[in-house]
Amino acid sequence: MRKEVDVTILVIAEHDNIALKAITLNTVAAAQKLGGEVHVLVAGYRAGAVAATVANIAGVAKTLLADAPQLCEGLAENIEATVLSIARQYTHIVLPATTYGKNIAPRLAAKLDVAQISDITAIIRTDIFERPIYAGNAIATVQSVDSIKVITIRGTAFNPVSADGGSTPIQVIKAAAAVPSVSFVSRNLRKLNRPELTSARVIVSGGRGLGSKKNYAHMLGPLADKLGAALGASRAAVEEGYAPNDYQIGQSGKIVAPQLYIAIGISGAIQHVAGMKDSKVIVAINKDPEAPIFDVADYGLVGDLFMLIPELVNALHVYQKK
Ligand SMILES: Cc1cc2nc3c(=O)[nH]c(=O)nc-3n(C[C@H](O)[C@H](O)[C@H](O)COP(=O)(O)OP(=O)(O)OC[C@H]3O[C@@H](n4cnc5c(N)ncnc54)[C@H](O)[C@@H]3O)c2cc1C
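Above: inputs. Below: predicted complex with flavin-adenine dinucleotide.
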């Protein structure tokens, strides 16, 4: 890539103070494509172990650690204040286009008085990027002339860098004072016994065709268990209450690209396909042979899911026993 200006990139690490989220490796990969020095900021509380993990990432030039109680819960206001204290040293600030990154990036962009460049899937030059629009049906090429570019990246578009191979010093920086207008109240976390959706190798995803919350659990649960899969859902399935909100895949949900995506009772509306079309292998099970999901599927099974899924689960059982 042609180097336009001296480029120094700040990646904001996503983590829970204990472990680094895998998406940070994709974010670093995107940052490296900009061709400059990559620094990674861990903003948290008692997050030394996360900083140590970051310091091992291949190709990271500097690990910054801001460690303070006000950064414990990842409140965007407090992280923003800390990032702003160092932002002017960078030409690019890069975050994942996850709930975490999408919470922080707009605040940074507004305070820096620059335009945010959202959900990029390719870097053409240090100031030119590609991003999907119209639910992925068109790709916009956008140029930014801002002095600092605040960017969120689509994780599935950038292969993760290796978590090992680096050895950078950890530089402790001062956390900005707590923003008085916000305080942390509580967090309701659902304990997942399954892989996390955005990093799962296999996803079993259900739609309105399942007909009820009970069917969703009874049909998809055993199949996901056999495959060690994460569970996903269409928006219709979420709206009908079959699955929780954070299972939603698509334009207004999560973007995923697992090795195997099994769409069950999902019609394949463009807004759903926008979230899973980059999966390596797509299997669709639908009773309607004209369902648009078959246009993107590598393998299609036309039939009643209530007959096919139990058969499939049994077949997998037999296969595992061999
Ligand atoms: C702005 C906007 C954003 C949106 N964002 C999203 C998004 O992020 N994610 C998303 O998913 N949608 C999104 N949608 C909604 C989207 O347009 C569709 O309405 C939704 O994806 C449909 O979900 P579905 O396929 O589960 O339901 P349906 O379209 O109702 O399809 C159900 C399918 O199940 C099949 N079926 C029924 N019974 C059986 C059976 N017994 N066996 C086998 N197959 C069966 C049917 O043939 C049908 O194809 C968005 C829409 C808008 C306008």
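The two ends are 51 Å apart (CA to CA).
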